[in-house]
Structures are given as structure tokens and as C-alpha cells.
Write a structure and sequence with these properties.
The protein has 10 helices and 26 strands. It is of the alpha+beta class. Strands 14, 15, 16, 19, 20 and 21 form a 6-stranded antiparallel β-sheet that branches. The chain is elongated. It is a multi-pass membrane protein.
Length: about 575
């Protein structure tokens, strides 16, 4: 007696009755991938979501060195100082690009790989999504009992008329957007007088997801374009003086790799007056206004104002009011009576009453005289108090009601010829000596506007000629900023759509009633959602409730457009 055993079915618990067939001793081998196969494998790995997320995280990590070490594009002086102070590590960091992180080869490689990964991920998904949008909703299943949302009822209209009404109800738009259909609908004749309607919505979820990724690509392109074509500079403009939009007139200037300074629009800006307003009790600042005269090429001068958070647009750049202060106008004569220094010197405010610190460097002295350095404070409204250690000077108001300069005097080598850039607001004291009185206390000069004082040891004289105001302007030009804003808003809209757009499918079947003087059409319905959807059953009940009001005496609801393959994705 033989037992039939289907092919491919074996009982692991049965004892074998026959000797097993001899197996080959040759080991199995997989076909070689080849060069094209390896390229295809690498492309699939690069365009996978896992690698895209890894590259995004790697890009964030690669940006960290740009916040740890000074960057040459922002502050070349700090980079030079860092390399000089770290003779071992500094040159190696420079070779590896840690002082130019955002334009380095390794950062650019991560950036480009992330861009390629996103594009390679988006293109095939877009093709599949477009094919799904153009397709027809799936046919109604034969049995509705297994679906989470179900409903039933009856209508007075015939099955065909009820199906047409269902198409109109399902394709009706929102109240606030009535011309956009909510479902893609397809009506089918199943034979025997039975009609079915299939409706589908929720492709907007995938559309939003693709929009989000496309917006990320747009952001990457915009940021890269902005980094190549932007420029940014800071300039201090003293009251009564002007500024020309040329690279040599900037105090600091940075530019993108593809930006040419020759493309700067040659406009001029003159500071006519600066107004400041402070709270009379707390002395907190209330308003700053810079009155300027703007002259564009080939145009007449125009009076403009610049306020905090209200920049001026000039030459395609935004001109921001970054800061303000006082620039004492000084004249220093050396021991021979020659003018060694003359002009305004900006002092930096240190507190709310504009106690300002500044440095005056006088390198151009005649003969063998040592160079002069003056370090001290400007007090807009000075208050002098006698203490056990001598007079103490302080400012009591930010407005220049009774200004005075309190300076210490240094002489020696200012170190301006060492080749290392210096901060104009700091004095290199390594080669300088501070002048002292007979009692070994530092020499202190107190001078008011219009006064002239003698420098100690016959070094010359100092004259306080006036006290004009100055403004610190920040000029920025980035042609990619509007695109960054647009793509950021698109990314937000796409992300919100992909998170909140419900994915639903509804099916309705209209079968002729049986018997009776007034046979009615029997309606059965079911719904299915991708994920949890608390609105699925109420949506199905709404459709059935609207269909219950339709009769054969009323004209059917005309669907908007064809009944197959159209509608909101």
C-alpha cells in the first residue's frame, strides 16, 4: 500500500524508508555582482531612508567644528591669532579645513551626498505616486463584514440612480473649498441590477510627504546658493561723515565663494544725525533713529531713516542699525609739536549709561620718540566723587550733558608691524610701558571737550575737539533668502499634510429590494482607513444619511467631472 504525499511536503517526524539520494559535494556559489551590480547596490544604499537620515545627522555633527573654532570667513584675525598661539595644532587644523568648515571638501561631500540621496529617494516615489493618483479606486469587496466601519440602510431611488447620487455626495467639496472634490469616485454596474461605488481619499498624505522632501531639496539648494552669492559687512559711520559701498570701506567683510566684490552697487550713505531716546527714570533705551542721506548711482540724494528692526534697503542689501555710541574727536601732537593723530575714535559702550571704553593708538610720531597709546573711558555725563584713594569718575546719564575723557597713558612699541592683525579696541601691552606718577600711581588724564592737556614726560599734547555720535551698520545681501522662506513654508505645509490628512476608502453597494408594492434599494457600506481614524465611522454615517433623503422624484446629483479616476489624491 502506498501513501500519496504532495510534492514539496515532508514529514520531519517520519522515518525515511529509502536511502536518501546522494547529494552533490560541490558547494553552492552565488553569481558575481560585477561592476554594474555593485553600482546598483551602492545606489540603492545611498537612496535608502536609513542612509538619508544618517547623512542628515552627519551633516549636523560636521557643522559643530564651525562653532568651536573661529572661521576665516567671519574673523580672519581670530584665526591668525589662534594659529599663532597654537603652533602645533593650529597648522594641522588649518590643513584639515577646520577654520573653513562650511566650504571644506568633507563638509561639501556630506552636503552633496545628502542632496543626491534625497533626489534619488524622491524620484521613484513620485513616479509611483503619480501612477496611483491616476488609477481607479479599488473595486468594492464582495463581503463587508470584515471591515472596521460598516453601515446599511435603504433608499427609495433605483440602484443606478442611488449610485449616481452617491457619486455626487462623495465628490462634493468642502464648504470653504467647494470646487475641490474630496474623493476619487468610481461607479460600477455589477450586473443583476446591482451597482457599487468605490471612493478613495488620502493621497494628499503622500503628496505632502513628497512636498516635504522636495522642499528640503529646495532648502539645500537655496542655502548653498546663498553661501556662494552672499556678502556681509560691518562699518562704523561717524556723524557728518559718509560710507561708500566698496570693500575697502568696510571694517569687516565676508563673501561667498562665487561673489565678486566688483558687483557691489556703488551707493553712498552719509550719517546726518543720530537721535536716541531713554526712559527718564530707568534710563532704559526707548528709541534709536539714524537720519541718513542715501545716494544711488545716477540718482539724486534721498533722506532716509534707519531704526532698530527697520532696516534700509540699498543696492540690493539690507542695512541694519547694529549699534551706536560716541566717537570723541581727538588731536594728538608729539613732542616736536607735529600732529601725530587726528580724527574721531569710536568708544564702545559698556553699560546702560554709555560708559564707553576706547583705545587711541598713535604710531606716527616724529624722530626717535616712542609710540603713544591712550586707554580709558568716555563718560557722557561725568560725576566726580572724592574717595580715600583719590577722585572717582562715573557716568550718570547716557546723554552727553557733561562729557569727559579719563585716560591712562602708555608708551613703547604698539606692535602694529608684527604682521598679526590687532583689535582696534585693544592695546597690545607686551611692548608698552604705562606711565606712573611720583607716588607710583598710574597717570590719569581728564579732559573735556575744547580742552588741551599736556602728555607726561614732554610726550606732546592731547586736544578733545568734539563728541560726534557714530552708528554701527550691518549690511547683508543674500539673494536666496526669499527662496529659503518659500521652501521652509512649503516644508511645513507638506509635513502638516502628511501628518493630518486621513487615508480612507469607502464602498457602497446598491442592490434592488425584494417584494412589496414599493420596493426600496438596499444599501450596504463599509469603510477602511490606514491607521487609527476616529472619523471614519461618522463619515460613513454622513454619506448614508444624505443618501436616505434621495428619491426617484428628485433629479440625481450631477457629479463634478468624470466618475472614474478623478478627484483629490
Amino acid at each position: 500500500m502506498t501513501t500519496h504525499r504532495p510534492e514539496g511536503l515532508s514529514d520531519v517526524f517520519a522515518e525515511p524508508t529509502e536511502a536518501p539520494a546522494p547529494t552533490s559535494t560541490v558547494p553552492a556559489s552565488l553569481p558575481a555582482l560585477g561592476f554594474v551590480g555593485w553600482l546598483r547596490w551602492a545606489w540603492r544604499q545611498l537612496t535608502s531612508m536609513r542612509v538619508a537620515l544618517l547623512l542628515l545627522m552627519l551633516l549636523a555633527v560636521a557643522a559643530v567644528p564651525g562653532t568651536v573654532w573661529p572661521q576665516r570667513a567671519q574673523d580672519a584675525a581670530r584665526v591668525a591669532t589662534y594659529i599663532a598661539e597654537h603652533p602645533t595644532a593650529g597648522p594641522w587644523l588649518d590643513r584639515l579645513g577646520f577654520f573653513d568648515v562650511y566650504s571644506s571638501v568633507w563638509f561639501s561631500a556630506i552636503y552633496i551626498l545628502l542632496f543626491v540621496s534625497l533626489v534619488g529617494c524622491i524620484l521613484p516615489r513620485t513616479k509611483v505616486h503619480l501612477a496611483g493618483v491616476r488609477g481607479r479606486p479599488p473595486r468594492a469587496p464582495r463581503r463587508f463584514a470584515r471591515f472596521p466601519a460598516q453601515g446599511s440602510g435603504s433608499v427609495e431611488a433605483s440602484p443606478e440612480r442611488a449610485a449616481q447620487d452617491a457619486v455626487g455626495v462623495l465628490r462634493a467639496g468642502w464648504r470653504w473649498l467647494p470646487f475641490v472634490p474630496t474623493y476619487r469616485v468610481d461607479a460600477r454596474d455589477e450586473g443583476g441590477g446591482t451597482w457599487s461605488v468605490s471612493a478613495e481619499r488620502g493621497y494628499l498624505r503622500e503628496t505632502g510627504n513628497l512636498l516635504f522632501h522636495l522642499a528640503l531639496v529646495g532648502l539645500l539648494i537655496s542655502v548653498a546658493t546663498g553661501q556662494m552669492l552672499h556678502y556681509r559687512g560691518q562699518a562704523i559711520v561717524v556723524q557728518g561723515r559718509g560710507f561708500a559701498n566698496a570693500q575697502v570701506d568696510y571694517d569687516t567683510f565676508e563673501q561667498g565663494t562665487a561673489f565678486s566684490p566688483e558687483s557691489l552697487v556703488p551707493f553712498t550713505l552719509r550719517l546726518d544725525e543720530f537721535e536716541s531716546r531713554f526712559d527718564p527714570v530707568t534710563l532704559q533705551s526707548r528709541d534709536f533713529t539714524a537720519h541718513v542721506t542715501l545716494t544711488n548711482p545716477g540718482e539724486d540724494p534721498v533722506a532716509e531713516t534707519i531704526k532698530v528692526n527697520h532696516p534700509l534697503t540699498a543696492g540690493g542689501a539690507k542695512v541694519y542699525l547694529q549699534g551706536n555710541g560716541y566717537a570723541p574727536e581727538l588731536t594728538v601732537r608729539d613732542a616736536s609739536g607735529q600732529v601725530a593723530f587726528s580724527g574721531p575714535t569710536p568708544f564702545l559702550p559698556q553699560d546702560e549709561v554709555y560708559t564707553s571704553r576706547g583705545v587711541v593708538k598713535v604710531p606716527d610720531v616724529s624722530g626717535d620718540q616712542e609710540q603713544i597709546g591712550l586707554v580709558g573711558y568716555l563718560l557722557p555725563t561725568v560725576d566726580v566723587r572724592e574717595t580715600a584713594f583719590g577722585p572717582a569718575y562715573a557716568s550718570v546719564h547716557p546723554q552727553p550733558d557733561d562729557p569727559a575723557l579719563v585716560l591712562a597713558v602708555w608708551r613703547g612699541n604698539l606692535g602694529l608691524d608684527t604682521g598679526v592683525p590687532q583689535n582696534v579696541y585693544e592695546l597690545d601691552e607686551s611692548r608698552m610701558t604705562q606711565l606712573m606718577d611720583a607716588d607710583d600711581s598710574p597717570v590719569t588724564l581728564v579732559v573735556r571737550p575744547g580742552e588741551t592737556v599736556d602728555l607726561p614726560d614732554g610726550m606732546g599734547t592731547l586736544t578733545f575737539d568734539g563728541l560726534p555720535r557714530y552708528v554701527a551698520l550691518d549690511l547683508r545681501h543674500d539673494p536666496a533668502l526669499p527662496f529659503v522662506l518659500v521652501f521652509a513654508l512649503l516644508a511645513f505645509a507638506g509635513l502638516a499634510t502628511s501628518l493630518f490628512a486621513p487615508r480612507r476608502r469607502l464602498w457602497l453597494r446598491f442592490a434592488p429590494g425584494t417584494g412589496g408594492q414599493d420596493p426600496r434599494t438596499v444599501v450596504t457600506a463599509a469603510g477602511l482607513a490606514r491607521g487609527d481614524d476616529v472619523g471614519l465611522q461618522p463619515e460613513l454615517d454622513r454619506v448614508l444619511a444624505q443618501l436616505a433623503t434621495r428619491t426617484d422624484d428628485r433629479p440625481p446629483v450631477a457629479p463634478r467631472g468624470p466618475t472614474s479616476g478623478e478627484g483629490t489624491p
